Here is the input.
Amino acid sequence: MSKESVERGKGRKPFSGLVKSTAVVSLFTIISRITGLIREQVRANYLGTGHGSDAFAIASMIPNMLQRMFGDGAMTPAFIPVFKGLQEEGDKERLSKFFSGFMTLFTLLMLAVTLLGILLAAPIVENFFTGRFIDEPGKVELTISLTRVMFPFLFLISIAALIQGTLNSYNIFGPSAFAPVLLNLVNIGVVIFFWDSFPDAAYALAVGFIVGGFIQLAFQVPFLRGKGLKFIPTLRGFKDPAVREVGRIFLPGVFAQAVYIVNVTVSQAIAVTLEHGSVSALQYSLRLQELVLGVFAVAVATVILPTMSAQAKNADFVAVKDTLQFSLKLLGVITIPASIGLMLLGKPITSLLFKFGQFNEESIRMTAFALYFHAAGIFFIAAQRNIVQVFFAMKDTRTPAKIAFVVMILHVGLCYLLAGPLRHGGLALAGSIAALANAGILYLVLRERIGRLNSKALFISLGKMLVASLIMAVLILLALYAELLTKPLRPGAQFVTKAGLLLRLTWIITAAIITYILAAKLLKIKELEELFGMLSRKLRRRKSQPS
Here is the structure.
């Protein structure tokens, strides 16, 4: 047996653990996304796509963008490889000193950013996000006020992201994956019970995020204590070489996320100049896109970073390549059919999930239109998030930052080009095309960096998944052609009950899944068989355990 074969065998060793951890994260993420969806349904009921909803969309977007810039978008990829490296050395006291130093400095940084955001909320909103908001009296003022209320959420969620990164380094994924469920439940409760206690129901949403964010943070702390990691506030982190190394990796990551902020800012700045409700429609659509991404894609990306960091630390790039290939195939087998299904069934799904109270037929039309283009990019966004983890595992955030800058130019140009003919749908399509470009460039650069990636086998597998998905799409199109789903949604037609629409969607989605599985079996898509095999073995082990 060749040395490479042996190394490949070693590289595959953690795959069962990777799938197991992914399953845990996916399970809790499913619960999180479901409760998040209910949260959005509550928002749709009280706000629809109107005055307060557009204002809240901008107010929540600004802190969330900055959280990606300073939190899990740039900080976590910089922190985990360094923390994992120290962890591998086995010196717990050294690890605690590093953690204390970094946590102290990061807390002070996020506190400063939060206070600055509150002070600068008015000029930020007035200079970048007014557009047609000025046509509605009080809408700009409401947006500014809500932005100030939302900024403390940035601080809470960023510290929570650091704790999550630490737990993930110990291969503890469950608590952090479950914590957003608490955030969503608290938010739902605050809106339902206190919406009429505020001058606008949008304030209840904002306050719900603050309270929920605190609980999300507090929930994770006891699990960290259980690892014996000590936190003593100290400013000695300035002199700690490991903290400086995080800073060295962190800064290019911040730049990359700043590019992301420019992308979002441009698309939202264009959206506020379009018809009223465009901003909210894009946000509701993104929630459905993230529902698919979060259930599986984010789970895989979360799990593989600590694994690949350890592999990169040992310079085992054969294992790194195998882990990446495995994760991309795992993503494709789920996200490709999900993407096509969401594109074809976007309107009835949007109606089923959001048609409450203020969310009317026009809201459904606008959201479903954006969803069609958002759904097209699901696999590419998932692939991009996973390929970039290889660079992060190698402590390289500069390369993704440079690529992100190139893609930003493409994205901005596409936004202006497509917003004319496709309105807010063009903004969604621009994001999907940019994700394709980003994933493609990252993959090509990575191949130059660490050698051949066995691309032929990967693309053959993905091609089979696409063919199986297209066979599934034929079934969905036949159902749509037979008007089993579209007839109740025609303008002027009497709307069916929620139960009736749910029943129709349930059977057509079930039939589509069965069709995809059968097609995958005929095409011998082994990744789906492996996934089912691992899950069935896990279930058998549970059943065999004594109660």
Remarks:
- Residues 274-535 form one domain.
